Fold:
Amino acid sequence: MRVVVGYGNELRGEDAFGVDVIKELEKFHLKNTKLISAFQLTPEIVLELLEADEIIFIDACNNEKNHYALACSLSEQSRFNLSHHISPKTIVAMLESLYEKHPNFFIYSMMTDSFSKIIEFKKYEECVDAVVKELLKNDY
Structure:
């Protein structure tokens, strides 16, 4: 099963990117896909990912230069960080170490530095649509 996790704060402008992608995906009947919308990644989300063969994380990332660019990347973390901010890589590491699960995983991030409001609504919507189209194309 594929699990798509969109996360972010809907009260913080473009930080809601992941949540907005999930809202759009919910309009379609995706095969073998579970959609999860979350305020932030927490250790508890690991329990919802146990059956996943593939996990796709969607969020906004801070970048002062490339606003509205889409990226597929994973930030490196050298240790577990179980505080306020948990990275997708940490979630996958928890799946591997605690449950011996080894799903494929990807992250789609929209670059922004606007966490108070949506600055350019049209460009924001284009980013949401681009990720939705990509995920629909790869629906299995």
Notes: The chain has a mean pLDDT of 88. The first helix runs from residue 17 to 25. Residues 2-137 form a domain with the Rossmann fold fold (CATH 3.40.50.1450).
